[in-house]
Structures are given as structure tokens and as C-alpha cells.
Amino acid sequence: MIDLTILLSIFDAASFFDWFVGHANYWFVFIFMAIESSFIPFPSELVVPPAAYLACTAGDHADMNIYIVILVATAGALVGSLVNYFLALWLGRPIVYAFANSRFGHACLIDEAKVQKAEEYFDKHGNISTFIGRFIPAVRQLISIPAGLARMNLGSFCLYTSLGAGIWNAILAFLGYWLAKTVDLAHLRETIEEYNHYLTYAGLAIGVICLGIILYNAFKPKTQAKA
Q: What are the backbone angles phi and psi of residue 87, rounded to the nearest 5°?
């Protein structure tokens, strides 16, 4: 079980990391990745890389498998995202529409028709927005909220969230795999922190590349059909 001291240590990265390395299992990977993807800010870099590291080294956690770590982490990310999705759907939508229909909302040039138009836009472009958002720091936890507000198709939301989270978790797991071959456990946390900004750049780069491909396909000249 997770006691209060561990929950408090979430806000102390060093203490949490040391605890997690000593107690890592699939359940904890799932739980903390669900937290990471919900409305509680929590870095996935403290969970997946050390779990993958432990899965690739001999010892008490040698029974863990790096591929299962990726799957479990992705499942946790999906569950956490669904929390945000349904909170936005059940609580956020009534608040947004109440604001749009209020005098203050009208004074801000917002009305129900504009909200519905925004929902229609996200319905058309929400799939790729949800996918790309999983790679961008700070956006990963928040992209589920507009999806819920816009009533994005639940199946599509789960699919693109899982794809994006799965790729990101695979990148984190690969880092853990590589560190298992090059770094001893005593220096693992410092090394992960050292590479953390590279992970941020990698996430932003993947998002930009995906967006660039989408824009290219959207605006490239259409070829004339042969007669």
C-alpha cells in the first residue's frame, strides 16, 4: 500500500525516486502514470525510465519486463486521461455553457453558438491534437480537458491517447534500457535528471514533426487526375 509519507514524497522528487526504485512493480507504474496523466502534475520521467532500468537489470525486480512496463504505463496514462476527460464532460461543459449563456459571457462576445462551433472544430481536429499533445510537456495532462469539453468520440479519444502515450512511454523505456547498460543504480537519478531536458526537447520535436506532416498533407497541391 501507499502510505501518507509516500504521497507527500511525490512533491520531493529525490525521496520519491529512492522509494520507487526500492518498491517498483507493475501496480505502482500504473498508479503513478495515472496520476501523471490526470490533473495532478507529476513527471513520468520519475516512473518509466527507472522501471525499465530495473526490468533490464538483475536483482529483486528482474521478473519485470520492459515491454509490460510500457503497456502498463500506457494503460495508466489512459486511465488518468479519462479522469480529466469525464471531469471536463460532466462538470466543465455545464459551466462553459452557463457562462456562454450569461450576460457576462455575451459581454465577452461568447455565446452558445460559438461554443458549439468550437466543439465542431475540435471534433474534426481533436484526434491529431490529442495524439500530438501527448508528446508536449505540460500539455500532456491538459489535452484531455478540451476533448471532454468538446465531447470527442470516446473511442477515438482512447485510441489516439493510447498511441501518443505508448510512443512516449516507449521513448522513456528506451532511456531506461540504455541507462541499464551504461549507468549504475547509485547514479541513476542524477543521470535521468541530466537527460530530462533532452526528453523535453524530444517531445517538442516529435510534436513539431507530426504537426509539420499534417500541415504539409493539408496544404500540398493536389495532383491532377490523368484523363
A: -65, -45
